[in-house]
Specification:
Elements lengths: L7 H8 L8 H10 L6 H9 L2 H11 L13 H8 L1 H18 L8 H21 L6 H9 L2 H9 L1 H12 L4 H9 L3 H11 L4 H8 L11 H16 L15 H6 L7 H23 L1
Length: about 290
C-alpha cells in the first residue's frame, strides 16, 4: 500500500536537526499557566533561574507604558503588576529572540522583522479586545509568532530563500513564491514548528491559516484576527520585509470579524499606540 506523501512543511521542520527547541523556561511557563494554583511566587522562582529574562520582566514592569507610580524592585511584584499572561509573552519573546538569534537563522532585516511581529501581536490583541474575546493576551502571542516560519526558511533553506527573494522581486507575493519553490509556505512551516514546540491548537491553526483564513475550520476567528492584523500592520509601513508584496485582504475574514471601513481610523490609532508599548518586548529582546 502506497504511503501518503509527507506534509512538506512538516518534512522541512523535521529535517532541521539543529533547530532550536523552545527554551525550557518558556515551556515551563506555558505549563504553569494551565494550573489554577500557580502563584506569583511560583513564577518568580522560575524566572529567577534565568537572570536575563528576570531583568527584562523587571524593566518592562517599570517602563512608562505601564505607568506604575512607584519603582518595582522584586520579581514577585512585577509578576503581580504585569499579570501572568503578559509575563508569559515577555518570556516567549525574549527566549525566542535569544535562541533564534544565537543560531544561523536570522531574517534578512531582523529589526524590521521583529518590529513587524510585535506590532502584529499588538494589533491582534487590539482586535480581540474589540470582539470581547476571552484571554486576549493569547492573540498577542499568536501575532508575535505568526511569521516564525520565515525564520526557518531564511536560516535553513538559504538557497531556496534566495530563489524566493528573486521571485518576489519580480512581483510575486511571498506565499506564491514559497509555494512555487518549496511546495509549502512560511505559514505552514510556522504551524509545523509550533506543533513541534507543543503549543496549543489555537496558535497552530491561526498561524497556519493567517494567509488563508477562509480555510480555517478549528479556529476561524483566530485566523481571521491575525490575517487582518498582519495586513493592517503592513498598511502602516511595518511589513516584515521591505521588498515583499503585500497580499490582498480576505473579505471573508474581514466580514467574519464584523469590522467596518469606518473602524479603520480607530484601529490604526490603536495599532500605533499599542505598537509603542509592544516595542518594549522587541527592544529588550534585541538587547
Amino acid at each position: 500500500m502506497k504511503r501518503p506523501a509527507a506534509d512538506p512543511a512538516v518534512a522541512i521542520v523535521e529535517s532541521v536537526r539543529n533547530l532550536p527547541p523552545l527554551p525550557h523556561v518558556a515551556l515551563r511557563m506555558n505549563e504553569m499557566l494551565t494550573n489554577a494554583e500557580t502563584s506569583a511566587r511560583d513564577v518568580e522562582r522560575l524566572l529567577s533561574g534565568d537572570p536575563a529574562i528576570a531583568s527584562k520582566v523587571l524593566n518592562i514592569a517599570n517602563s512608562a507604558y505601564f505607568g506604575v507610580a512607584q519603582r518595582i524592585g522584586t520579581l514577585t511584584h512585577a509578576v503581580m503588576v504585569l499579570g501572568f499572561n503578559t509575563v508569559r509573552n515577555v518570556v516567549f519573546a525574549s527566549t525566542l529572540l535569544r535562541s533564534l538569534g544565537a543560531s544561523d537563522a536570522q531574517p534578512h532585516d531582523p529589526v524590521r522583522f521583529w518590529k513587524h511581529s510585535t506590532a502584529c501581536g499588538a494589533a491582534s490583541r487590539l482586535i480581540a479586545e474589540r470582539l470581547h474575546l476571552p484571554h486576549v493576551e493569547e492573540y498577542f502571542l499568536i501575532g508575535l509568532l505568526h511569521d516564525v516560519g520565515r525564520v526557518v526558511i531564511r536560516g535553513w533553506r538559504k538557497q531556496e530563500a534566495e530563489e524566493i527573494a528573486q521571485l518576489t522581486a519580480e512581483g510575486w507575493t511571498d506565499v506564491q513564491a514559497e509555494s512555487e519553490v518549496l511546495g509549502t509556505t512560511h505559514a505552514q512551516i510556522g504551524a509545523a514548528l509550533l506543533q513541534r514546540w507543543q503549543l496549543p491548537s489555537l496558535h497552530v491553526d491561526a498561524v497556519r491559516h493567517h494567509h488563508s483564513p477562509e480555510l480555517a475550520r478549528e479556529n476561524p476567528i483566530a485566523a481571521a484576527i491575525v490575517h487582518v492584523a498582519d495586513l493592517l500592520v503592513d498598511a502602516v509601513l511595518l511589513g516584515s520585509d521591505e521588498d515583499s508584496v503585500v497580499p490582498s485582504l480576505s473579505r471573508e475574514a474581514w466580514d467574519r470579524l464584523g469590522l467596518q471601513p469606518e473602524d479603520l481610523p480607530e484601529l490604526f490609532r490603536g495599532i500605533f499606540d499599542l505598537t509603542e508599548g509592544a516595542a518594549s518586548f522587541f527592544n529588550l529582546g534585541a538587547a
